[in-house]
Amino acid sequence: MDELNYVPNRLAGGLSGTRSDIVGVVVTSLYHSEFASILDALQSALLKSNLQVMLANTRYDPDQEVTLVRSILSWRPAAVAIIGVDHPPKVTELLRASGVPIIEMWDIGGDVIDTAVGMDHTAVGAAQARHLIERGCKSLAFLGSMRDNDARAQKRATGAAQAITAAGLNDLVFATRPEAGKPDLGDHLARELLSKHPGIDGIICNSDVIAFGVLRALKDLGKRVPEDISVIGFGDSEASSCMTPSLSTVRPDRQRIGEKTAEAILARIDDEPSTTMTLDCELVTRDSTRSI
Amino acid sequence: MDELNYVPNRLAGGLSGTRSDIVGVVVTSLYHSEFASILDALQSALLKSNLQVMLANTRYDPDQEVTLVRSILSWRPAAVAIIGVDHPPKVTELLRASGVPIIEMWDIGGDVIDTAVGMDHTAVGAAQARHLIERGCKSLAFLGSMRDNDARAQKRATGAAQAITAAGLNDLVFATRPEAGKPDLGDHLARELLSKHPGIDGIICNSDVIAFGVLRALKDLGKRVPEDISVIGFGDSEASSCMTPSLSTVRPDRQRIGEKTAEAILARIDDEPSTTMTLDCELVTRDSTRSI
DNA sequence: TTGAAAGCGCTAACAC
DNA sequence: GTGTTAGCGCTTTCAA
User: Fold this and answer.
1) Do B57 and A40 touch (CB under 8 A)?
2) In angstroms, what separates the C-alpha of A140 from chain B's closest C-alpha?
3) Taking the domain A121-251, which CATH number applies?
4) Do the Cβ atoms of A11 and B14 come within 8 Å?
5) Nucleotides of C under 7 A from a protein CB
6) Of A97, A53, A206, the residue nearest B30 (C-alpha)
7) What values do phi and psi take at A271, rounded to 5?
8) What's the fold here for domain B10-120+253-280?
């Protein structure tokens, strides 16, 4: 078999047999490791069970999501793992009708189709805001890329706004744009924000990469971080600990999400019951937020 | 069709028809966007032709590579895209025997199976060394993660060593470890390097993420960058322009590699002839290397 | 324990 | 054009 370089035809195997060995994975972005680390851990764990990853990337486009989910289902996957719990109705319908185990990743805040592994993003946003409030910030902004279909970012913003209201502070100021989250966008939005709202003393960034640009702009504007303005990110990029000042952030355990998703997939294939697994995020305090 | 949520069975389609609509993609890492951006661009471009990505990640393990290539081929892909041109002999044999178009990405320096889209890594390493030499560095080191099976990193190191010899300088000093390239590794290797070789005045880092840790360590050691030591990275991470000092680096055009790979796949499926496409890397000069 | 045969859901080739 | 059918390479079932 090895000498002749025989390679079995798994299309035939999948068509004939009861399972297809394909796991469909639908992400909303592959852009700088937002979900690449989840994918990494997921696919490595699935490998042990000889399951192959069929990948689709919606790029936050709901029409694409419908097309891609249909496309993924057409391979008769053993299971589908998908980012988020907020989908176009047709996607939910297709996934439900497929009869295939569905694992929703990253977010658990909403209607789960089958099984979910992720965080409570509203709680994350609230934790970010409370961290800044505890450290004496009085006037907060939420800054970054916010795509129409990034329900997670919207939940974090909502959580932050609620925490601010609960603390009796001024309303959260929004500085967002529906573009990709690059440092230049953070740089631009920070300048715009401070010219309109010079009193801002705490900025919640929607991603670490955005925060990098914010730090750069603040340095350029002569603002001291954290003395004048505190900055917190989201995502714990590897670079965050190497910024000057080092960036406080929230660390989602992407590897754990990938591993737990793989476990959930295997469990559901074995007909074990659905579950929802809520993972905590660690708030990593560094130099960009004031000390108490 | 839409009302009944009918989803065609593409396993059957692939088995029956002449093409299978699957493109196998084999990467060596999914770790912080080293190849995630290529994957992103590649899969988006393939989407337009209704081709689906079947993903495999070898994590720099040659045994895995054999297993995974066999696994990918068992889906009878329309084409296979794979990182690098240096594979275990069995992989080359399997890919050749498959009769499927093979596009090797990222590196073009060696024996190409069919079609390649990538950079000349030896030239990249030489350019990094020459950049430091031009700016007055006399004693250079190559620092970072170097996996046994990362032929590209080895080519860049070789290119740098050759440029240094050509310039009549002392031999390149190596400070490498076969672990994943994280900032903490860069931090550790920089401290170790300078205690053994205090005269080093230029460091070529094998990745930007490694360089971030190097910059952090140098700051902590009281070394000025670039006055005492110049530092150059590789990869152009989004964070690099936001470091203090901002990091000089080499920018491979990952998006272009992904797009050109997709084009090459479509061309080869259409039986157009094999080609090798060499892409240039831009050397991005920032503050971490001395000005002339 | 081993072997033969049906059939998975499509595509493509052929006949009409 | 439209309709029918063989067959892709396996898995599974059933017979020997």
Assistant:
1) yes
2) 23
3) 3.40.50.2300
4) yes
5) 6-12
6) A53
7) 65, 20
8) Rossmann fold (3.40.50)
Distances (CA, A) of B58 to A87, A199, B72, B92, B99: 32, 51, 12, 15, 22
Per DSSP (E only), the strands in A157-281 are 173-177, 202-205, 230-232, 249-251, 276-278
Closest nucleotide to the alpha carbon of B14, via C1': C10
Could you tell me which chain A residue has the CA closest to the CA of B51? A71
Contact A33 B37 (CB under 8 A): no
- Which residues make Cβ contacts (< 8 Å) with residue B63, sequence separation at least 6? B88
Do the chains contact at A55 and B56, CB–CB below 8 Å? no
| D chain positions with any atom within 7 Å of a protein CB | 6-12
Distance of CA B271 to the CA centre of its chain: 28
Each as own residue / partner, the long-range contacts of residues A95-100 (CB below 8 Å, 24 or more positions apart, any chain) are A95/A69, A97/B5, A98/A73, A98/B7, A100/A73
What does pTM read for this prediction? 0.94
Interface test with B, best of A1, A9, A11 (most B CBs within 10 A): A11
Asked if strand C contacts B4 at the CB level, meaning under 7 A, the answer is no
Paired tokens of A105: 């990743």
Select the residue from B9, B43, B242 to test the A interface by mutation, using most A Cβ atoms within 10 A: B242
Span B39-56, pLDDT tens digits: 999 999 999 999 999 999
Domain with CATH 3.40.50.2300 in chain A: 10-120+253-280, 121-251
Can you give the pLDDT of all 292 residues of chain A as single tens digits? 666 778 889 999 998 887 789 999 999 998 767 799 999 999 999 999 999 999 999 999 999 999 999 999 999 999 999 999 999 999 999 999 999 999 999 999 999 999 999 999 999 999 999 999 999 999 999 999 999 889 999 999 999 999 999 999 999 999 999 998 999 999 999 999 999 999 999 999 999 999 999 999 999 999 999 999 999 999 999 999 999 999 999 999 999 999 999 999 999 999 999 999 999 999 999 999 988 7
Q: Report the candidate in B113, B118, B115 with the shortest Cα–Cα distance to residue B95.
A: B113
pLDDT tens-place string over residues A222-280: 999 999 999 999 999 999 999 999 999 999 999 999 999 999 999 999 999 999 999 99
The per-residue b/e assignment along B137-151, b for 16 or more CB within 10 angstroms, e otherwise, is bebbbbbbbbbebbb
Tracing tokens 């230029």 back to the chain, one arrives at: B202
